[in-house]
Write a structure and sequence with these properties.
Blueprint: H1 22-26, H2 29-49, H3 51-54, H4 61-88, H5 106-122, H6 127-154, H7 156-164
Helix pairs in contact: 2-6, 4-5, 5-6, 6-7
């Protein structure tokens, strides 16, 4: 399967076409989103109905400061990952630099662990931690299928990447 066009090619490693299949850009995102959406909707409704149950206490100044500090790398990793996806995937290139040198799925990991929980704390709710946890677990659930497709598409280059990524387990 050609990862750019979404069409089958000989041996799974044909030349990259010029037509971009939008599913390539989002990878497992559609399935992860379908998993997370019900938790998000129920959580937001519950948070609006019973805000005291979700409150983190203000948030206290220390939690607010820590949240601001954690959001900086989180938003940076997210934006950098999106930029790399939008510029490199249409060219049929395997992304191995920037945040992808640290973890295999920095967009999901960054949003789940560095954006949602800390944004939630800034908004005086622990709902971000819950939604971030579901997002992270969903990304781990659907990552193997996405990684098998990448291995088929990029072969030895994918294997080489796996040997260099700093935290492949995250």
């Amino acid at each position: 399967m050609n990862p750019v066009t979404g069409t089958r090619t000989a041996g799974g490693r044909g030349s990259f076409g010029r037509t971009l299949d939008w599913r390539v850009l989002i990878g497992s995102g559609e399935r992860i989103g379908a998993l997370v959406l019900p938790f998000l909707v129920v959580g937001v409704i519950a948070n609006l109905m019973w805000p005291a149950l979700f409150s983190v206490g203000g948030p206290p100044i220390v939690l607010r400061a820590l949240s601001a500090v954690m959001l900086i790398p989180g938003i940076t990793i997210w934006a950098w990952s999106v930029a790399l996806i939008l510029t490199m995937v249409p060219k049929g290139e395997l992304i191995t630099s920037g945040p992808y040198a640290l973890v295999k799925h920095p967009l999901y990991t960054g949003v789940a662990l560095l954006v949602l929980p800390w944004a939630g704390f800034m908004l005086d709710t622990w709902l971000g931690v819950a939604i971030g946890t579901v997002l992270y677990l969903g990304s781990r659930l659907f990552a193997p299928e996405e990684e098998r497709e990448l291995a088929r598409a990029f072969g030895a280059r994918w294997d080489e990447y796996l040997g260099t990524v700093m935290m492949p387990w995250l």
